[in-house]
Amino acid sequence: CIVLSEGKIIYDGEVDKAISIYMQNMSESRLNYDYRDYVRNCGSWEQKISIDSLEILEHESTVFESGEAVKFKIGARSLMDVENMKLRLQVVCMDGVTVGTAFSDREISVKKGESLSAVMELDLGVLAQGNYTCVLAACEYNSVGETRRIDYIEDALRFEVYNMPSPYTSR
To which H or E segment does residue 19 belong? Predict the structure, then answer.
């Protein structure tokens, strides 16, 4: 069994040792993301909020066990007055298909120049073992439920989900 890091073989040997090395390398993965310098491609939408940061809470890596619930803290600042906004975290598998979505638990209203933070929880119980990426968006809602994107971070976070081995199967 081999372990790769940045395209180079860092270990070639026993499976258990390889898993240990891999998990140690993954535990050094980023838990805090800064998007203040992220260039947005606004296209047909107007940026009213700047999502500035994402922090993974209560976890030491971006490798998660299937069935875990993961908490994120998102920091943002308002570039304009905004009413009825929610934050949205979409989980996308590596082939580009959206497989899960989490929303902030309440609608947020902010005045120009105000900062805000929200904690969101994502249930990984429906995800198969594999690698995923997330899209992070702020959306404004009108009185009939239509949404309008007001900030958008593509590939905001990458993570891996693994399945725990069953105690009833042998190695």
Answer: helix 15-27
Q: 127-136 pLDDT, tens per residue? A: 888 899 999 9
CA dihedral 38, 44, 48, 53 (to 10 degrees): -30
Helix (H) / strand (E) element for 26: namely helix 15-27
Burial 7-43 (b: 16+ CB within 10 A, else e): eeeebeeeeeebeebbeebeeeeeeebebeebeeeee
CA 156, CA 83: separation in Å to the nearest integer? 24
CA–CA distance, 47 with 157 (Å, rounded to integer): 20
Q: How far is CA 126 from CA 5, 26, 33, 77, 138, in A?
A: 28, 22, 25, 32, 24
Tell me how far apart the alpha carbons of residues 98 and 68 are, in angstroms, rounded to a whole number: 19
In whole angstroms, give the CA distance from residue 140 to residue 160: 30
pLDDT digits (tens, 9 = 90+) for 142-162: 888 889 999 999 989 889 898
CB atoms within 10 A of CB 66: 15
**pTM of the complete model:** 0.76
With a cut of 90, say whether residue 140 has pLDDT above it.
yes
